[in-house]
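Researcher: Next entry in the queue.
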Amino acid sequence: MSTKQITVRHDEVIAIVSLARPETRNVLSRDLVTGLLSVFASLKDDERVKGILVTGEGKSFCAGADISEMARMTSAEAASFADLGQKLMFAVEKVGKPVVAAVNGHALGGGLELALACDFIVAADSAVFAAPEVLIGIMPGFGGTQRLPRLIGKSRAKEMIFTGERVSAEQAYAIGLVNRIVSDDLLLTETAALLKAICSRGVLSLRVAKEVIDAGSGVDLATACLMERDAFALCFATHDQKEGMRAFMEKREPRFTGR
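Model: Structure for this entry, 259 residues:
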């Protein structure tokens, strides 16, 4: 699939979704956000796709929302735009498959929020992260004030959001914002290989684990552990559980089918 603003390329069991507005540093216009919503809805229902890699074409992952659009918005229009952006981030989170952000260059504002909605981030050496909204008189609106503290802690998130300062890939790794750093020229290759390895595991168990981790982060520990117990037991009703354990005992690679 290819549009003027988004490309989707299939690579074995994964889909590589690229923001394709390099001349604008892949800023998130309303049209681009709407297009991404459509892409994730399609990928959610595509049984061929086991995992999704999100990246940006050119020298930026995504430099944030389109300021030229936002400058003309009323408060009501801004609320509608924030609703649309938050809908996209929830669509990324709830697609039911592993989603990894491969961040090249700038991930600013809405671009940072898009990366945060993914399961984790692999950063290129050149990656730069920031929540610079306060520098133009606004604040994050696509979920950044909620996802960033959950990932790196409240005080570090407040520092990033209050100052708007940029964080290098090395700094982002040190504070737990990114999982890995790789060289720019190997970013897509290594991230795709990592995601394919993840997708070779039990598809159903990956999906259930993702759901429990995400849902459990919003409730108390005792409730979350009950959710884990029930999901753990559910795995034992699947073909993949029987195949995985049989393969382990027979000392061979499992052949998971997602059933």
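Model: Residues 75-93 form the longest helix (19 residues).
Researcher: Noted, moving on.
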